[in-house]
Amino acid sequence: MNQTIIARSEIDNELSKRQIDLDPAGYFVIYLDREGGLICAKHYTNIINDQGLAADPETGEVIACKGGVERTATTVFTGRTAKEICVKIVEQTQPVPLTMLDHAAYLGREFMRAENALVSGEEYVQD
């Protein structure tokens, strides 16, 4: 494998380990609808508790990262391209369901990864 690609991969892997603050406006679960040719993003609301953890706004229960309680998405966004879904979320939805620039940048990266996987047929797993 090309040294430049390895170096980029190592940079991204290391950056994925950093601490990030949770967006009080909620979080997104991104997946592909291959049959429909769509990138999909379910948006869930949350609150941030005193410990800095995401919690269900109705129950106050901490939301587990893996598995756990089934929640109902507030909104489901879809687009055929990363740009289309980003425009729907950031430009066509009021209020915008995210409040942090790092969250918006993360979503843009993930939507590009999802689009590439949709086009190439590769598996997509949200980072």
UniProtKB/TrEMBL annotation:
A matching Pfam family: PterinBD-DUF4346
Positions of the DUF4346 domain: 22-127
Entry superkingdom: Bacteria
UniProt name for this protein: DUF4346 domain-containing protein
Upper taxonomic lineage: Bacteria, Bacillati, Cyanobacteriota, Cyanophyceae, Oscillatoriophycideae
